[in-house]
Structures are given as structure tokens and as C-alpha cells.
Amino acid sequence: DAGVIQSPRHEVTEMGQEVTLRCKPISGHNSLFWYRQTMMRGLELLIYFNNNVPIDDSGMPEDRFSAKMPNASFSTLKIQPSEPRDSAVYFCASSLRTALRDRGRPSPYEQYFGPGTRLTVT
Amino acid sequence: KQEVTQIPAALSVPEGENLVLNCSFTDSAIYNLQWFRQDPGKGLTSLLLIQSSQREQTSGRLNASLDKSSGRSTLYIAASQPGDSATYLCAVSHTGFQKLVFGTGTRLLVSP
Question: Which pairing describes strands A117-121 and A10-13: parallel, antiparallel, or unpaired?
């Protein structure tokens, strides 16, 4: 498997513009997470989905942020309008949520991260 | 609110040394604890995951232990190598939830 895929890897945009970040989770995983990493606040969970349904979006900072997961293999994180304080690295992660631990399968809930999107808003 | 702390924030050692990274958390009602490695400008790589019912996990030169009641975990790296240089993060999840709360990380530099 190619792992978690994120695009773009780098995004530079002007304040006020709309930004869309994309994520393709590992095939077969049923949970997807969006994180943000900054020097000041470290890694923070923004939102996560189970079976394409948003479960916890308490980390989404403002209404300017929205996330969707239209199917099991694709998710977007949108910022509209963007502001300079949104500059950060945004990571997507996926995991296999299961109550059973089968031999040879990943541990339940172990999260696998994508390479991240470095967003700069000027 | 769960808080995760990692000590030290930075560590520099010569190649070949054994070392220990520390992670502490304030709420012991965790489901699991995961150790990650992050290289500069890169994403996170999962190293080890310890379920709350386990005491330790091993992978190669890495050994992670968990003392849930005292809210502590350690990551032991044996015979360190320059390639081990990276930032190491620990993260915990709570029972019934999947969201990870991350520590602040330990930046490790192993010099040849």
C-alpha cells in the first residue's frame, strides 16, 4: 500500500483565499483524522471520521474550517477564507477501527500519518 | 483535560549510547499509547503502540514501557545511531475514543 496520501504537499496562498487540502487514507482503513501542527501548539486533532461520518469536530478552530469525507477513500479539509494564523502543517492520518486483534493485522486504532501539507498564508 | 508532557525537550548523545525518553500523562484512563518518530519536514512514523493492558512493546532496538497507574511511559533506544536523530512524540488515546493527545516531543541528536 502507498500509505496515506496528501495533496498538495505545499500550498502558498494569500489571505482571504479558499484553500482545500486533500487526503486519501490507506485502503481498508475506516477511520480518518485531520491534525494541525504548529511550533506554538504542537500537534492538535481537528476532526475525525469513522466510516465516513464525522465523530468529533471539537478541534476545528472556527467556522472557516470544514471537512468532508464523501467516501471511504477521500477526504477534504477546506479553509475559507484563509488567514495568516492558519499557516501550519496539516496532517491526515488513518486507522483500522476494530474490536478484534487478529494475528498479523495492525493493532486496533494504530494511526498512520501522511506526509502533511505545509500551508503558508501571506 | 489530558495533558501529555515529554522530558527532556532535547537530547544530544554520542553514537552507541543507550538512552531513555520519557512521557507522562495526567489522566490514567487511557486506551493506548503510541510512540512516533518525526523527521524534519516529514510526517509521523508510528514506532510502537502499547495497549492499556500491556506493560511493554519491543521492536528491534526500541522498547516502550507503560505504567498506566502512574501515568508514565518510556521509550528505550539501544545502541543509538545517527539515523535515530529525529523528534520523538508520544500520544495517548482515551477509552472509547480514538483521538490522540500528543506530547510536545523530544528532539534527539545522535552524533557520529
Answer: parallel
| A97 contacts in chain B (CB < 8 Å) | 98
Cell triple for B67: 505504567
Pairing assessment for the beta strands B10-14 and B4-7 based on DSSP bridges = unpaired
Write out the E strands in B15-103.
Answer: 19-25, 30-38, 44-51, 56-59, 62-67, 72-77, 86-94, 100-102
| Burial class of A88 by CB neighbour count within 10 A (0 to 12, 13 to 18, 19+) | buried
Cell numbers found for residue B109? 541528536
Answer whether B33 touches A (CB < 8 Å): no
| pLDDT tens-place string over residues A75-107 | 999 999 999 999 999 999 999 876 544 444 445
CB contact under 8 A, B36 and A113: yes
